[in-house]
Every structure is written in structure tokens, then in C-alpha cells.
């Protein structure tokens, strides 16, 4: 039986936002903590830059698998169970990794961790959709997405700062402690589902639902945009420590870790996007956000550290604003099976993470920072032109069909 969801005025609304926000913060802190450690790991294990980045890209691959598998399972067995299990199981690899002498084993453990980390994003948005009143769900979603950025910022800053001052093993131990605290809070405070209805669809029916979305041109464009946004964003941030630790900047890892405070501008992006979308068309704001992202990326080519820092702040704001609006577009565009449409968007989103982490690595090997940035500049510019042209064609097609139907 359906029970009215929590509203903004309800205490439980804020408890849900806090619990899921903390779960999200740990998830993304754990996921991105390896990013600033890549230069250290490259030296410690005497490996190539591309191989070191495997600890990010392989985690992303398993997270994508986890999003699909755990998304299916949470539809059948409930959201809260998978959120709690995700946090607990994701802590365990970080307890083991500091003792490993083989980088291959670390990559394997990160693969396992990527799968377990998927439990939170696979279930959290569905939980919000079921347990939060429709009028308040957009704010809850925006705040949840903001904690994604906050978690990524915390993971990068803590890992980079502690690794420089002490060692990289201690940085992972601190994230373990943070995870244990979050787990205790979530176990105590996250309310049980009131409106969850187990779906007894077969695996084949779920795949049919996915194939339906993959035949929708408008959704395919949004999935493609998710990939492009993440390739641009992750590609820039993954190779940033290598760039800033080299001449002419020659910054220490500790100093580089402070630069991740630029994520604070990303934290503002999602709520601002939610507010603006109620006043202007979502499509127009999304275009502006992508242009802001492009400007931010371009600034990182400058020889001045100040201009680079400003560019990174602009990049974070543009990316998280565009990401929030694209996720909202997927939900609006899907006429039914919205959960599977959102899952597909997240899959596309993390394909972008994997691509930005490792697949563009040869550009760094060949042309260093300029190779990375020229690519991450060209990609969103080309796709934005393609996106606007394609959306116009789809709108004209729908208008023609509507005209024919009324004429008949």
C-alpha cells in the first residue's frame, strides 16, 4: 500500500538526505581516492602512467557491471539492504590494499571494490523516488548529487595530502575510518522503505526494458552526452597531478591535493541547476553549462597557475550543472521504465569515467597535457553541435507526425 512520501517540512526528509548523502560521500571518496595517488603509485611500483591509471578505470568497469546487476537485485529485494551492504563491503578492500606488494593484486581488489561501491548509486535514486514526495524529490536528488561532488573532493584531498605528508597507505586507512563512521550512521538512521514494491520481472524482461530505451534516439543522445561530459571531466582531473607536478609548476602532491577544493564549485552546480530549471528551459541551461565546462577546460592550457585554478573551478561548476540537468532530461524523456533509463545513463556516465581514466592515456604518452586538453576540448564542442542538430531533427519529426495525425 502506498504511503505519502516525506516532504521538505518533515524531519525524516532531512534524515534521508543526510543518510544517503553520507553514503554517497563515502562511495565517491573511496572511488576517487586513487586519482591523486597515481604519481606516487607509479614511482612506488615502478609502473607506467597508463598502468597506474588502471586502478581507476578497472574500478569503473566493475562499477558499471555492479550498477546493472545490483540495480536488478534492488528492484527485487529492496533498496536499504543494498545501500548498507555496499558501504560495508566497500570498506574491506581498503583494509587489505595497503599490505599488497603487487600492483596487479591492487587492481584486482579495486575491481571487486568497484562492484560493491555500485550498491549505493544503484539504489539511492530509486529510494528517493519512492520515499520522498514528488514535490520535494527534485531538491533531494540535487542535494544527493551534490554529495557526489563533495565525496570526490574529500577523497582526493585526504588521499593527496596524507600521502605527501606521511604515506599513501595511511590515506586509505583514514577513508576506512570514515567509511565505518558512515556505516554506523546509516545503519541507525536510514528509514526502512515504506513504498518499495518488489518487481518480479524476469531478467529477460529487464533486458527488453533496456533495449526499449536504446531504441529511443532522444535518450541515446543523453547517454552519449553523459559519456562525453565524463571523458572531458575525468580526463582533465586524472592527468592533472602529472601535469602540475612537472615543470613549469613542479608542485608537491600536498599542494596539488588542495586544488581539489575546486570541487566546491561543483557542489553548488546541482542545486543551482535545479533552481534554474524551474525558471528557464532545461535545454537552454544545459547548453550554457556545457559551454561553461568548455571554457574551464580551455583555461587549463594557460601557463599561469592562477588561470589554471580558475579554469578548474569553472570546469567543476559547468560539469556538475550539466550532469544534473542531463540526468533530469533522461528521467523526463523516458515515458516508462524510468528506473532502467536512469541506470543506463549511469552506465554511460561511468563508461566516460573509464575512458577518461585510461583510454586517453596514450595522448599523455605522446603529447602530454596539450594532447589531453585539446582532445577534451574538441570532444564536447563537436558533440554539442551534433546534439543540438539531432534534437532539432527529432523535434521536427515529432511535429510532422503530430501535424499528420491532426490532418487525418
Automatic annotation (TrEMBL):
Main location as per UniProt: membrane
Coiled-coil intervals: none
Entry keywords, A to Z: Cell membrane, Membrane, Transmembrane, Transmembrane helix, Transport
Protein's UniProt keywords contain Membrane: yes
One GO cellular component term: plasma membrane
Localization annotation: Cell membrane
SUPFAM superfamilies per UniProt: MFS general substrate transporter (SSF103473)
Family the entry assigns: Belongs to the major facilitator superfamily.
Protein name listed in UniProt: MFS transporter
